[in-house]
What we know:
The chain has 118 residues and is an all-alpha fold.
Amino acid sequence: MFNHPALLRQLNLCAEQLRRAGESDWSRRVLAAGDQVRRSGWTETGKVAVDLLFSADPGLDSVLFGAEHERRLGGPVGVADANGRMSELRDRLKQLAAYPLRQALAPGAPRQRSPDLG
């Protein structure tokens, strides 16, 4: 099962950024999407979990840090930096989510061993 490690890493970075800014609800939603990708692999189920982050109302695209986040992010400059990082993370997540899906393994089917394990 292919679990899309680059996407999982970006989801974790995004959740950490949100947590640092005080957006714990959003952080939990992003982590839940990552857990779904880990459990199901990069299949239709995992893709739906990631797509829901952006298609929900409000979606991840609508998350912007403002004056209420200044104390946690170090003032207006910190807020601007955090908004820039979130924009980059959203763009990377969308890029990685465009990766082709893999077929889900049948229950009980043997998993293919990685060639680098020897």
